[in-house]
Design goal:
Layout: H1 3-11, E1 16-20, H2 24-29, E2 36-37, H3 41-45, H4 50-53, E3 62-66, H5 72-82, E4 86-89, H6 93-97, E5 102-108, E6 112-119, E7 124-131, E8 134-138, H7 144-153, E9 157-162, H8 174-181, E10 185-188, E11 198-200, E12 205-208, E13 211-217, E14 226-230, E15 234-238, E16 246-247, H9 257-273, E17 280-283, E18 299-300, H10 301-307, H11 315-324, H12 333-342, H13 350-354, E19 361-362
Parallel strand pairs: 1-2, 1-3, 3-4, 8-9, 9-10, 10-11, 15-17
Antiparallel strand pairs: 5-6, 6-7, 7-8, 12-13, 13-14, 14-15, 16-19, 17-18
Length: 363
């Protein structure tokens, strides 16, 4: 079974059991929402299917077996079929699942619609923001066809593509979408990228229907990082502020620079938390895989302030605590950053570069 078919079945809530047979460490890194798990990978790989024999699986109902790349899961699916289970293997495994997505939608004051496009495997969040029949796409992490499909189904015309910063955990699709549609590509002003773009500076406004997104420069995660405030009641915070943490200030940092960026991040967060407490925080990532439940990964600013203890610290305490909690570096981030800065697409399979969950947050 390919990723698209499984994605559609989960989206439609069809009866399907996803059986993850990977090792515990891989499962902890990222997983398909709602999947079952059995630590059977090594056993099945050497031809021992006893861990599968003990499972209570629905006879006649569909079971999709998942491993890292789709080879060992085929062996498991073959064994299960021999026992009367309707089993299939997910083509390409979790590496291919990296590109699976689902949607959630919310309305903010003034009738502005925010469609959250969730790349569920990596937790990457992008947005189609619509007012009347006009739309902007923020931080696209999927192919152009996905955003064209979303806009077309709703009768929207995409006017521009907007990035919050130069990404390190996934390949940006912004330039591709802008070129495909012949529309502007907006980026915070900086000298990192080597291709044409429309620069955004603090206080600039990006028009949309009867409203506009206001640019808030929020350095720290990267020096150019910016948030986009929707006066109707939302703020797109990129990788600066999450629902359960803050952005890490160390990626691509020079010696000693992480502390300086940590101080800048503190000031940026103070600026964001001063927005009206009912403002919906719309981050660039989720803390883990997002289920196919249609519930937006968003929360009022007041709730985020209370659930993220880092926001209650003094500047010195904040910088010290954040730098002491830096997670492991995202895999392949150096090459991903280089490609995003150059505006180039890799010649090899992008899912190999992007495999694994994001590691942009500090909690």
């Amino acid at each position: 079974m390919n990723v698209q078919t499984l994605r559609q079945q989960l989206e439609r809530h069809q009866p399907v059991t996803v059986l993850d047979i990977r090792v515990a460490e891989s499962r902890a890194e990222w997983a398909i929402p709602g999947s079952r798990w059995v630590d059977a990978y090594h056993a099945v790989k050497r031809g021992d299917c006893r861990p599968l024999a003990a499972l209570d699986l629905p006879v006649g109902a569909l079971v999709v077996v998942v491993c890292e790349m789709g080879a060992t899961s085929q062996l498991a699916a073959t064994y299960l079929r021999s026992k009367g289970v309707a089993a299939e293997s997910l083509d390409g495994g979790m590496q291919a699942w990296s590109l699976a997505w689902n949607l959630a939608e919310l309305r903010v004051a003034g009738g502005v619609t925010v469609i959250q496009v969730r790349r569920t495997g990596k937790g990457c969040l992008s947005y189609v923001v619509a007012d009347h029949d006009e739309a902007l796409v923020i931080d696209p992490a999927l192919g152009s066809d996905v955003y064209r499909e979303i806009a077309g189904a709703r009768g929207l015309k995409i006017l521009g593509v907007v990035d919050t910063h130069v990404h390190a955990d996934h390949l940006s699709r912004s330039r591709l979408l802008a070129q495909d549609l012949g529309i502007p590509h907006y980026l915070p002003a900086q000298d990192r990228v080597h291709f044409p773009f429309e620069p955004l500076r603090d206080g600039d406004r990006i028009p949309l229907g009867g409203t506009a997104l206001k640019v808030l420069h929020t350095p720290g995660h990267t020096w150019e990082s910016s948030a986009y405030h929707l006066p109707a009641g939302g703020v797109f915070t990129g990788d600066t502020l999450f629902l359960d943490g803050v952005g890490r200030p160390d990626l691509e940092a020079r010696a000693g620079e992480a502390e300086e960026r940590g101080r800048a991040l503190y000031q940026s967060l103070q600026r964001l938390v001063s927005l009206p407490e009912e403002t919906q925080v719309l981050p660039g990532h989720a803390g883990g895989p997002l289920p196919f439940d249609g519930v937006p990964w968003a929360a009022p600013l007041a709730a985020v302030r209370s659930r993220v203890p880092l926001l209650q610290l003094s500047e010195a305490e904040f910088v010290h605590t954040v730098l002491s909690r830096i997670p492991s570096t995202p895999p392949n981030h150096g090459r991903i950053v280089a490609l995003n800065e150059a505006g180039r697409w890799p010649e090899d399979d992008p899912t190999v570069l992007e495999a694994g969950a994001n590691r942009c947050a500090v909690a």
